[in-house]
Write a structure and sequence with these properties.
heterodimer; A: 5-stranded antiparallel sheet
Amino acid sequence: TQLLEQSPQFLSIQEGENLTVYCNSSSVFSSLQWYRQEPGEGPVLLVTVVTGGEVKKLKRLTFQFGDARKDSSLHITAAQPGDTGLYLCAGNNFNKFYFGSGTKLNVKP
Amino acid sequence: NAGVTQTPKFRVLKTGQSMTLLCAQDMNHEYMYWYRQDPGMGLRLIHYSVGEGTTAKGEVPDGYNVSRLKKQNFLLGLESAAPSQTSVYFCASSRSTGSINYGYTFGSGTRLTVV
């Protein structure tokens, strides 16, 4: 069982659509990050959130950390083919480190 | 802007052989990590280090050993490789205050096949 559950596991959408990816847990995290990974490469950090209720924006990407610091969401507005990849959430509670199993996103032109 | 450098990028081992994966970071990060990534299993932590000379076990440490003799280097060793260790291995480093992890910088990975 994964401490961090991501949903959906797979998402295939058309260019221009909006989407939301969720990262849920029953545990509290000190901080949480989102990464994007492309085939044959290591994950690349998109954002770190540390405060409950925090919202961060990165161009068309909006990240939210739940008030209780147990969950997070990633919303992409007007998805583009360049957004295609594996999206991973990761959390830590002091020296305990966890990754979600990922959401594989395919944006079709 | 090297970041995290892993060597080698690819390796094929026979069952029972040993090898060491090398990881170097140039960001002066205290924390370093070794993860393995398998289809359907996500990223799983093997070992990590919170500073030079210290190491700790992660979720899947069996069959692996690590050393952090210098702050910038973190080595992962396989003493007697098994087919179950076929995987993609990622090294990462991060700035951390102990409670807050500010995010990993990952290397590009080592694809290991044990036959």
